[in-house]
Amino acid sequence: MATLKHVQRVWSHFLEKGGFDTHALSGLKVVAASKGNCLSELVVAPHHLNRVGGCHGGLLSHIVDTGGSLAIAADGMYATGISTDLNVSFVSGAQLGDKLSIKSRCLKLGGTLAYTDVEISVGDRIVAMGRHTKYVRVAHKANAEKKLDGQA
To answer: Where are the bilayer-spanning segments (predicted)?
Structure first.
């Protein structure tokens, strides 16, 4: 339960900053977390759709980015680093009203880099899979200094 509360606190901090996360992912809910793992949910809303009515690939990419960060938070970090690489494979679509299940894992949290993977699904159907690498050296320093936003 402590890991879940920690990740929810980090996610709240993301939203409080009022940037892109707040606009695109304000409906994201962190529902479970254990060391290095996070489960989130998001219901696809009208502003998540592309011009033909499907879930926008940019949103799915943003979810991989955010999911990787939340997995790093689930490994005990407040500041979660800076993206260095992100890739996404789009497997199937999602529609308005679908509940996306977002399973994020921190595969390795090192002194310089963290490696994560994220699976986005609707029920048993995989929608997208991604990997996210983050530079965490400055985040480790910020965490040691209790600077939540990672600014050194």
So the answer is: none
Which domains are seen in the chain, by residue range?
Answer: 2-144 (3.10.129.10)
The predicted-structure confidence for 128-149, as pLDDT tens digits, reads as follows 999 999 999 999 988 887 655 5
Task: Decide the pairing of beta strands 99-109 and 82-90.
Answer: unpaired
The CA-based diameter of the chain, rounded to the nearest angstrom, is 47
Looking at residue 144, its amino acid is: A
Distance CA 14, CA 35 (A): 20
Structural tokens at position 75: 């490994």
Closest CA to 77 of 5, 142, 2, 152: 142
Please list the residues that pair with 99 across neighbouring strands: 43
**How many Cβ atoms are within 10 Å of 117's Cβ, its own excluded?**
17
| pTM of the full structure | 0.92
Q: Is residue 147 exposed (0-12), middle (13-18) or buried (19+ Cβ within 10 Å)?
A: middle
Return d(Cα 14, Cα 32) in angstroms, integer. 17
Task: Give 26-50 pLDDT, tens digit per residue.
Answer: 999 999 999 999 999 999 999 999 9
